[in-house]
Design brief:
By secondary structure, this protein is an alpha/beta fold. It has helices at residues 2-59, 81-89, 92-97, 112-118, 135-147, 151-166, 170-193, 195-209, 212-222, 238-246, 260-263, 279-288, 306-309, 316-322, 345-356, 381-384, 409-420, 432-438, 473-477, 487-500, 505-515, 523-535; strands spanning 73-77, 101-106, 123-127, 226-229, 250-254, 273-276, 295-298, 331-335, 366-370, 389-392, 424-427, 443-446, 482-484. The relative contact order is 0.11.
Length: 536
Amino acid sequence: MFIYSSKMLKPLLTIGFVFSSGLSRIRDAFLFMKMLAKDAAKLREKAATLNDELRAALESDSGGEAFDPGRKTIFLVVTCGQAVRTILVSGLLGKLRERYNIVIFSPYYRSEHFLNSYKAENVRVLPWFDNYTLRLEFLAAYYHMHCSSSGTLKSIMENIEVNAKQGSSKKIRNAARRQYKMLNFSVLVGKLFGRKTLSGVHQIFLWAVLPHGMFRMLFDRFSPELVLSTAAHHSASWPLTHYAQDQGVVTAAYVISWDNLTTKTLLDEHVDHYLVWSDEMLTEMQEHFPFIEAQAHVVGSPQFDMYFNKEGLVPRDEFVQSMGLNPDLPYILYATNTPIAMPEEPQIIKEYWEAIQKTDLAGKVSLVVRLHPKDMISRYEELGELPDIAITLAGPPEWEGADKWLPDQEIMAYMLNQMAHASVSINVASTMSLEGFCLGLPTLNVAYTTATNKKRENLLWSFEMYHSSDHYKALVDEGAVLVAHSKEELINATKESLKHGATRKEAMQKVLSQKVSYCDGSSSERFSQVIGEIIS
């Protein structure tokens, strides 16, 4: 009887599980639709505010001067501090201004400093959306993560699954479970409807929510020949490129960082041209985003031009004294990570510097800690009290937007001098390594954490991924950087670098050529030429 009952119960339990699973899927779909409605209301509100701001700006002359009617017009969408640095501060804007009228759309319009810096003859500055992410974009992003061949994205998915089951805290486990649930839901929807449908639904959503009159007003007023998104993965710029493409206006997007094609999950699919740093990124574009039908161009990155043109470089003694340090001593430049990515970094630096004082380097070297734009000086108060140390900001926060870093010529000249006059550069695994290669600066990477921070509260990016991720591992494999797995290794590497200088120059140049084409001071010129070719 017991055996008979168990046989009868088995199919009933199976049916119950399928039914329960189906109900769960239906419930997820309803919750998702509810979130979409909230997104629509929020975006509609943002668009209404933006529409009013645009009309007010166009009626005033606060955003710039009159345009030359004999020139063609370019729309530049600038959505982050990195784009300000790469496109506006680098000299590229000046080259484009020589030939075109420029309309800069940016959330930084709300910063008086930004407005006054860039409004000029044949340049107009107008407000735009701050960065946002819609639930539809999350859906498409997770589906891309599932389909992508990027090893970095695969590692992120593994981290989500591991943290959902055995995260270091209840908070992490719950957050990971929400992410894991969203990942599975997106895979189901993606398999049912396909990537093209997800992209199409997103575009329809934008068309349904955003006011068409706002775009008509802009395009009728300026008649642009080109709309250029300066950060292809920022969806805040997509409504402008989508409308432009619908109107037959040429569109382009720049992949602003070397890691974007292997770490980002979404790029603007509705553009005619893509601009990338290198042939390597061209290959990554074809491999990871084959569904984007756009012509790709290699233009390098104007952010590196300053290391070769050296505009703003001052004598070493003068600069070192301005940081409050002894100009007779060499200094180590430590560039920090974000507080979320490296919460223990103040402790790592403190322990490293205290250990340095117990070696024969004591009193013979200084330390400059350059904070990441998202880092906070309050985290380093204890370190700042020690002798021969300077704690410096990447730049003061200029406004209350999502990205508070607003670099200008002065800030970038300061960074150039910090790099050019350093004797050793240390970071965890950032673009600062490539920047050091431009100057042949010995570069060390931190690959260890402190004993008190073994459990890292990082949901997606595990510590081990820093030096093995797709975009970065070549620097390690080629020996362009020395990776220190302990405080002792970092101290020994520091000593060797101070004594012998850059012994890895050949590897540095090889990797730099691989990652950044035209890394000779000519990227702005090349970028401008390609823009001209696209327009003509």
